[in-house]
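Render this sequence as a predicted structure.
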Amino acid sequence: MSRIQQANCAVEMVREQVQEHKDSTAAQLRREANTLKKTLKLLAEKFMLPQARQGMFRGDNQALPQLSGVLNSLSSSWDAPTETQLTYLKYAESKLEKALAEFNCVFDINVRKFHELVGRQRLHSLRSKSC
């Protein structure tokens, strides 16, 4: 999650740098930044509930809450895990694997592409400031 937050912060810094510029390159950077922010938001929601959400929710498909539920279930007893607990564990692991695969894809393709675009425009590096 911290890597997603850092990427969001870096994208926001780039948006601030090109906000005043009116040329077509700045417009392209703003479009790409907006698209990447949306992608990162959707990616974060694969792992955790949206932060603006209030209350207790069940049945969500985020990977980390499902793993947490399995951990709570397994740690509630000293007995050997039941078939149901093992099934939930396998399901949670598969959700996490899918989310991590998407995470890697977004960072390998989308974030790298944006970073290269920023580098071609000779803006401050995405890692030059801490978020």
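Summary. Helices lie at 2-18, 24-47, 63-75, 83-120. The chain has a mean pLDDT of 86.
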